[in-house]
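Morning!

This is the sequence you dropped in the shared folder:
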Amino acid sequence: MPIERSRRRIASERLGTLTRRLLNASSLCAIATISPGGRAHVNTAYFAWSPSLELVWFSEPHSRHSRNVRANPSAAVAVYDSNQSWGRPDRGIQLFGRSREQAGKHAQDAERIYTKRFPDYAPHASTGYRFYRFRPTRVKLFDERALGGGTFVTARVGPDGALSWQRTEIYRAAP
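The structure's back. Tokens below.
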């Protein structure tokens, strides 16, 4: 399958709109972390996100992915609507960056973000759990309705969550 690079830039505002739409498509994400031995690990969690595109979730600090984050903050997150059907326009987002356990005021900020998305969240029911914050430095968007079939757009994420286009790749079926 040949991959074609497009020189067509996509405006930051449009990238932001697409990113917000993709993050709202599902309340679950898949979090990929790396063990101290270099092995990949994936975990599914409910997540919320801030206007600066930071993702937050809460988890048991002794779980494998939480231990991995403490040892190596490098992580990747995938968000997609799992009700999509083969052969129809697909969409999803991949985010690459760093994660860490939150404490004190940062944990309170993460909890506020989480509670905004999940108003039924009950802090007392999850004693011992901790909040984690993921800061992406790069995103890869895939929205066939908005961008066209087989089109993936990669963008850098600034500290304030602003997106800047890096590249567009179009995957074409071999003739």
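Headline: The chain has one domain: 13-138.

More detail when I'm at my desk.
O.
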